[in-house]
């Protein structure tokens, strides 16, 4: 469960990116976050994984109030939340297997456990055959699959994705969506910021629209609701 209570975020340059946000996202839900550029979508989701802190208000994930989290506790939180970015953010010098294993190695899992878990998630995203390849040898869609595998290898309850299909062609975007659907069906909460109208209007889920730092719409099975 993700809860935001009266969340307000003002950046140091004076921009107010969240202007009083209240929302509840129950476990297992799939939520699209939509809205024009500069509306405050990234800020909204960055506060869920502690990349940004609210100026006022509370962000509570699984009963943990992130506003009260100490800096040294953030890495622990990050293990409970998978994050997927538009630009993948893979480590270029590590191969596919190592990129995914990295998240486990930092928590000192045993080599046999790491092998088991990494192979399991690579299978889920259909990349078993490419485990020894490097990011630059992969297509954009494959790189995004690696990043999704990395985001779920710690079995997080929540996966947060910031425009995960933003750099991908339409066909590849649908494949990536199928993977998110599968992950969601296993019980993982998905929060996804997106500009992909086609996807939002086809694979129906809860739609939260943000404009000017405020939630302007929140509908189950809603549509994208913008022209571009
Ligand atoms: P990310 O890759 O995490 O999405 P951003 O593009 O949001 O990173 O931010 C990159 C850097 O630029 C950060 O240091 C952020 O604080 C800064 N930044 C982002 N947007 C603005 C803005 N509108 N005005 C000033 N600084 C910004
Ligand atoms: P979106 O994801 O909807 O495009 P953002 O949350 O990135 O919106 O940005 C909301 C507003 O906050 C914008 O006006 C943006 O320029 C500003 N902003 C975002 N990050 C920063 C930052 N690190 N420093 C200053 N302003 C920022």
From TrEMBL:
The gene is ftsE. Residues 2-228 form the ABC transporter domain. Pfam families: ABC_tran (PF00005). It comes from Savagea serpentis. Homodimer. Forms a membrane-associated complex with FtsX. It is a peripheral membrane protein. This is Cell division ATP-binding protein FtsE. Keywords: ATP-binding, Cell cycle, Cell division, Cell membrane, Membrane, Nucleotide-binding, Transport. It comes from the Bacteria.
């Amino acid at each position: 469960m993700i809860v935001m209570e009266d969340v307000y975020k003002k950046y140091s340059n004076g921009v107010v990116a969240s202007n009083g946000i209240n929302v509840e996202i129950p476990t297992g839900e799939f939520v699209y976050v939509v809205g024009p550029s500069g509306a405050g979508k990234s800020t909204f989701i960055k506060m869920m994984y502690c990349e940004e802190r609210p100026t006022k208000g509370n962000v509570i994930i699984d009963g943990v109030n992130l506003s009260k989290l100490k800096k040294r506790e953030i890495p622990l939180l990050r293990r409970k939340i998978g994050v997927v970015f538009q630009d993948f953010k893979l480590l270029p010098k590590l191969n596919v297997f190592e990129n995914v294993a990295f998240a486990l190695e930092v928590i000192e899992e045993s080599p046999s456990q790491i092998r088991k878990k990494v192979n399991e998630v690579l299978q889920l995203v259909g990349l078993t055959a490419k485990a020894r390849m490097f990011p630059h040898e992969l297509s954009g869609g494959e790189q995004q699959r690696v990043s999704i595998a990395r985001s779920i290898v710690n079995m997080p309850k929540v996966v947060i994705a910031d425009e995960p299909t933003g750099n991908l062609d339409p066909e590849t975007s649908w494949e990536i969506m199928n993977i998110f659907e599968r992950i969601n069906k296993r019980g993982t909460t998905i929060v996804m910021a997106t500009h992909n109208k086609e996807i939002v209007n086809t694979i129906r889920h809860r739609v939260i629209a943000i404009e000017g730092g405020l939630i302007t719409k929140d509908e189950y099975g809603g549509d994208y609701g913008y022209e571009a």
